[in-house]
Every structure is written in C-alpha cells, then in structure tokens.
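Title: Request for sanity check on Vigilin prediction

Description:
We are preparing a figure and want to confirm that the structure record we downloaded matches what your pipeline produces today. Could someone re-run it with the sequence below and paste the raw structure tokens into this thread? We only need the token string, no images.
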Amino acid sequence: MIIEQRFHRAIIGQKGEKIKEVRDKFPEVIINFPDPAQKSDIVQLRGPRTEVEKCSKFMQKMVAEMVENSYSVSVPIFKQFHKNIIGKGGANIKKIREETNTKIDLPAENSNSEMIVITGKKANCEAARNRILAIQKELANITEIEVSIPSKLHNSLIGSKGRFVRSIMEECGGVHIHFPTEGSGIDTVTIRGPVEDVEKAKRQLLSVAEEKQTKSHTAELRAKPEYHKFLIGKGGGNIKKVRDSTGARIIFPTADDKDQELITVVGTEEAVREAQKELETLIKSLDNVVEDGMTVDPKHHRYFVARRGQVLRDIADEYGGVMVSFPRTGSQSDKVTLKGAKDCVEAAKKRMLEIIEDLEAQVTIECVIAQKFHRSIMGPKGLRIQQITREHNVQIKFPEREDVQASTAETTAQENGETNGEVKDAADPATPRKCDVIVLSGRKERCEAAVEALKALVPVTIEVEVPFELHRYIIGQKGSGIRKMMDEYEVNIQVPAPELHSDIIAITGLACHLDRAKEGLLERVKELQAEQEDRALRSFKLTITVDPKYHPKIIGRKGAIITQIRNEHDVNIQFPEKNDENQDQITITGYEQKAIAARNAIQAIVDDLEEMISEDITLDSRVHARIIGARGKGIRKIMDEFKLADVVENESKQAYMKPRATASSVSAGEEQRSSSKGFVVREAPWTTSTEKAPDMSSSEDFPSFGASVTPKTSPWGPKRF
C-alpha cells in the first residue's frame, strides 16, 4: 500500500508502540516499512487477503486522521505580545491548547521571528488563531485594512526575495503586509498592525505604487555591512535626509538577505541619480580610513572592555566598524586609539566622551528590599531586572543569599504583618542586613528612577473586607473561582481558614495590579450579594389548605396542570407526602407576588371543583362499553362536550354511571342518558330456555374501556368480510 513517508514515523510510534497495536489487531498480517534512507512511500502488507484488506483500510484511516490533525497555520504576532500570549506561568497558552485541542509553538526568545505556529484540525486551528489574535487586539490597538493596488505592480512592490516589502514593514514598526497569490488577478493587499503604523505603511505602499506607475527607476550600489548603520544614522536620521532631499527610496538589506552589501535605490530617474550620488559620497568618505587618539582615565577602562568588550562592539556596529584600542590591562596609560572612516571616528569619539561624562557623574545608591522578594523582582530568567537596567542605563547588583536560619527573626516579623518595616531606602536609620541591600550604579537621577522601579516590583499586601458567608462562593468549586481571579489580575488572593470566621481577604501582588484586583473582588462581592438577596426573595413560602380529594385534579393528567402553574408563576409547589400529618396542606415557594398568584390559581381550580355535584345515572350495563368507546374516546367526547369533570362506572357493575360535574353539566348529561335509549337491547330469538344467551360484552361491537375481552360471536349476526 502507498503511505507518504512523512507519516511512517507517526504510524510506527516513538518506541514502536503504535505499530505494535496494529500488528496485535491483525496478527496474521506482516507489515514492513521501507528504510528511511530510501525515501519510499511503499509499505508492504503480507497475509490472508481478507486480513490484508482490513489492515490496509485500518492504516488508511490512521493516515486520514493524521492528515486531518496535521493542518498547520502560522499567526504573525508582534514579538512584544508573545509574553502575554503565554500568560503567567504559561496559563494563557495552556488554556488555549486545552480548549482548542491544538499544538501551539512559539519562537525562541532570542529569535527575531514573530510567527506562532498552530497545528491540529483545521477548525481547531482557526479557533486557536482567533483566540491568539483577540489577545493581541486587546493589548494593542491592532487593526487590519485592505488596500487596492493593481496586481501587475505586486511583484515590483515585493521586490527580489521580498526585500522591498520587508523594508517597508521594518520601517513601519514591523507591520504585516500580505499580497495575494501571484497570478490570482486580485488587487487587494492586506496590512495589519497598530493603527498608526498601518496608516504609515499604507501611505508608503500607495506612494511607491504611484511611482511604479509613472516612470520608476532602480539603481544598486554596494557598501560594507558595517557602514550601513552609519549610513542610516541614529534613528534613521542620515538616510531620512537623503530621502527628503532627493525623493528616492533607499532599501538596505535585512538579516534574511544573503547579499548583505547590496543597497537598492528606487524612484524617478532624477531622484535615483541624486540619491545614488549622495550615497556614493558617503561611502567613499567611509573608505577613507584615518587614525585618531583620545584620553580616557584608566579607572574607566574596565567599563569599555568588560563583558568581552561589549561596549566597544556596540560602538563599532553603530559607527561604521570603527576600531577602538585600549592599553593593555595593568598599564597606567590613558591613551586610546580610534581607527576607521573619518566621519565614523569623529562620531565614535563623541559618543565615548558622552559615556565618560556619564561615568564621571556616576553615583552608587543602596536600595534595601527584603531578600525574600528578590527573586520576584528579578522575574523569570532575570527579565525584569534586565529591562530596568536597559531603560534607566544603570548597573544593578544583588547581594548573596543569606542562610535561612539567620533570617528567622525577620521572617517572624513579616508573618506578623510588618509589610511596610520590609522596603527601605538608604536613608533608613536602621542597619539593614547585607542580604537585603541591592546596589545601583549610574547617574544619580537614573539610579533614583531605577530604585523606584525596583520598589514598584515588590509585592504589596492589602486587605479587603468580604462577608465571611461569601468566601466559599468566591473560592468556587475546587478553587476555580479564586484561581480565575488570580490569573486575571496577576495577584495572589489569600482567603482565611473557615474556623477563623474572619471577614478579611488578603491580596498580594505588584502595586500596579492591586487596585484592579481589589475592584474585581468587590465587584464579585456585589454579584454574590445580589444573588443572595434574590435567593431570599425567592424563598418566600405560603401554604394553602385543599381537600386531598382535589389534589389529583390540581395536578392534572401527567402533572400537566400543576406544571403549567409552576412555569407560569415561576414557583415551586409541594404536595404533602403520604405520611405527612397535614394531608390538606400545599406549600408554594417563590417570589411573594408570584407565590400569591399561584395560590390564587390553585384556589380558582378548587372553587370550580367545589361547585360540582355528583349524580347517579342508571344505564343498562350492556351499553356501557359502547358509550365508553374504543380507548375511552366516546366517554371523553361526552365529558368534553358537557364539561363533565369525571364519569365513574359503579364498582358493583350495576347498570348505572356516576358523573361528577356542575348542575348544568349534569342536566346536559341527562340528555345523553336519554339518547342512550336509542341503543335497542333485543331479546335473543332462541326457542328454548336451555339455550345460552351470547355474552353482550363482546369487544367486537361494544369495546371495553381498558380491559381486554376475548372476541365472541356477535348477537347482531355473523361477521362479514
């Protein structure tokens, strides 16, 4: 049989467990897979024909399921939102995976890719995709628009290997631009991203498209990759000047391009010519290598060469590959040499002087935060502290951890609620423990801002008063309610033990999250109190005294009447049990007004029943079955026509019936009794008294009401077929 090689490993299983199940199911069939190196799709099945056919169908079904479950879709999500897609402790991504039954793969943290790959059944993948996009849309003002651009221009807008469109996407904040399939003839181009970036990308696309429709020209020139950042300039300042002065568009290679030296210029013939001339002048000046020197105090050398010279590498990347040489370690020389393009050397020298100025202005500040919070402040893999370091351009050093026993006293104080005596600054007169002191270095104003950022990451506890009787509802079934709130607000919520009967719930988390968490908790309390009040209103009870003989009539056939009353008035109606002392008490529970209305409805039925009378009507027992009719149709028709509540055959089987109804209905029933005289009961034409009269209760002509009767010969003559 033919099975695509890509499914072979999945059919076999990681340790051969899946193919073993197939072989156990079809023991008479020998299954052989080709060697992976052969790249063959042929799987050999040998054995009895019928078994081989069954096995083949079974394996084809396995493949069909794999194909169905191997649908894959890539979702572009801006890198900054990946952590929100993952959620705290992976909660968000886990929930989406479980609820959509899909596999979701995110790119590594150090990867530049923004694509999230979803695998599974098509419908499930689409559901997961929509969930992920909804999270991104909620976090940022993400929009998606369509722009109409003639399809004949699409290839030129995309550029060779997508270089042109990638340059627009990168320049416009990383928006996503999607062109329709080549040859489809569709003019619609989709742009997705933050509103401002999308509008910027739209303007650029339409502008370039207009240029392409006029006489657009393209030119290419080459420059060393290390020159590119300098050509572009800080914040794109240099290249923007060239664009503004010439009107041409300049495209630099991206990290995905193989040719890292190629620069493309697009625009009108004149614009391209002018831009090319300016760029060539800049490149030529960069090729003009010069050497210059500067003085740097030896005490600052370590800053530049630390971390394997990371600062110097950054300077080289930013300023055209300029080389900076410091004296050997241990030397007291203050001479530093810079070598590279003249403009690059000057710019690098200026930047180094700015760094030295910062170093000269550096101070060291101590921030005292209890050691138990340090891990929380650092965040997973130190991400939070790295962010503060970058944003405030400071150095942060955490102390060594102290032995647990040494901190017993403070731990006791913390357990006693001394949350505020925990976060202190250097001005605190109390002598802090070494393990609590975090040291920051940098410019004074930056260090102070970083200290505030660190303190903002310290978990804070607030107390919220919530009635004790509501605690179990806030916790929810198996803790589901409180877990949902903790995940939503990124806090920890501590509910006191039931035996304490305390109304205080503690919320612990970052200060920026506490207000929202408190608001959410109080909103939940309001909901529960409203439900509690509603339950109290619905618990109104009243009783009505009704003679038990009327209970079946109030209930109705198969409970139809009482069900209608319950549904109409939204109440619960309870009849007495057999062993109850008060057999005449019916209890109604619900909203007060609705319970009263239900009671009135029952009382109206009782009033009607009490107006009814009972009268015996004598009828020849031989016509009872005829009046009752097949399956009681005849007697029901009479009851409906004359509004009779009941018609009961006397238990002694005597020749009369006993209807119960109002006086007018019984009188009308009398007319029916009179009409029964129309049924003639004739004497049988037998000549001797020894002949036995036939049974007049035959169901052939007088159907019984419920009881089965053995058919006998009809007194009205032989049955004709």
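Thanks, this matches our download. Confidence is low (pLDDT under 50) at residues 404-420, 422-429, 653-659, 675-721.
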